[in-house]
Amino acid sequence: MTSAPVPANPDSPAARLEALGLVLPKVPVPRGAFKPFSRSGSLIFLAGQICEWEGEVRYAGPVGAQHDLEAGQRAAKICGLNLLAALHLALDGDLDCVVSCHRMGGFVYCTPGYPDVPKVINGASDLMFAVFGERGRHARTAVGVATLPAGASVEVDAIFEVR
């Protein structure tokens, strides 16, 4: 019986993803005239990612009507995994280059007056902390909106500093 290779650094983002039982999806094809990331010096700007997994929107419709808080958080986590996939692409597979996640912006398609928009976006924020530790803590905006692309329940964007 052979064991899986142990990553050189058990605290690396790749090792943390593996320990969490998470895999990165393929980077979703943009649904508009934009690219998944743009780099300026040591900053990588990641385009908004919806809760799409391998081409299928997993959560569509408003949180607070069609989905509860927990489903919204799962949707936000999928957005976060898509962001990590785009970051992985931008860094040629080397997430160890991440210095910090500086900012995330979260958008929740929700019912009017839905009070838990920030809690929904915690699904993506918690993922970044789990993968990068303190380097994953960030400033953030969380906004409730009337609709999102493809009727997705959540969309999240991010800005990372890399070396």
From TrEMBL:
Superkingdom in the source lineage: Bacteria
Record domain Endoribonuclease L-PSP/chorismate mutase-like: where: 15-149
Transmembrane segments: none
SUPFAM superfamilies in UniProt: YjgF-like (SSF55298)
InterPro entries per UniProt: Endoribo_LPSP/chorism_mut-like, RutC-like_sf
Pfam families: YjgF_endoribonc
Protein name, entry field: Endoribonuclease L-PSP
